[in-house]
# Entry
Amino acid sequence: MKNNIENYLYRMIDDARIKTKSDLIVFKTIYSHVNPKYGVCFLSLNQILARCSLDSKTTVRRSITSLIEKGYIDKKNRVLDGEHTLSNSYKIKPL
# Structure
């Protein structure tokens, strides 16, 4: 990725719209697990929760929604053969 994690975190810390520490933690986790070949993160909600050491899936979901709304990440729902749900993919948006 062109921009490093520090650039993103500095921007997010200065962003008055980022109100919770969990947004920073979830972003850092997604960023850290981006597959360099595809440029996206394929962690499941449970995997993000475990790596963030946050208290609930609801907190992780809220942070993901917040990061999407604020323009830091994109989320794509993935389905196999039109019926089997896979983990979402998350793409870091450029600064």
Q: What stands out?
A: The first helix runs from residue 5 to 14. The chain has four helices and six strands. The chain has a mean pLDDT of 92.
